[in-house]
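re the bet — no i am not wrong, look at it urself. input seq straight from the record:
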Amino acid sequence: QINVLQAKKKFEILDAMLSFMHAQYTFFQQGYSLLHELDPYMKKLATELDQLVIDSAVEKREMEHKHALIQQRVISFYLQDFSYDDSKVEFNVDAPNGVVMEGYLFKRASNAFKTWNRRWFSIQNSQLVYQKKLKDVLTVVVEDLRLCTVKPCEDIERRFCFEVVSPTKSCMLQADSEKLRQAWIQAVQASIASAYRESPDSYYIE
């Protein structure tokens, strides 16, 4: 009986091994079939991936080009004070049209955000005014320059700034260059002096 049992175990072990091998064959066969069905999709995905790599390289090159242009503009902006012609910074207190000086300046807003906006400023009729666009209605910043003082501002985050101070408010402005800042300061001072000279004595008394 012991011999019979030992012989029987040999057959059972062999049968179990054969069943295991069949199970392994079936598993890998099914895996191969499944991946074989996915082969066209994987090839399509690989083609799309190649195109994505090309598009990404093109986009990167375009962004680098834009970044280089922005750097050039920034450099040009910071160097533009060396390229202004002196004729562009002249002012005339005796101009026939009454406009002593005009040009673009950045104005700091009086709100909590302290944003800077570029406006077309002019000095005329003893007033400091600006327009958002050339054809817009004039906005008066300072009604009477005789009551104002003007001074350059260095302790600020921007360059070429100056401040026009009146009894009721102050206006922080930024020019595009040091030459323009000095010209605007001199224009305001000259306008103040000219307005005092032209005013009759009765106006001072009043």
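see?? The longest strand covers residues 99-108. told u. also Residues 81-87, 202-206 have pLDDT under 50 and may be disordered. so pay up
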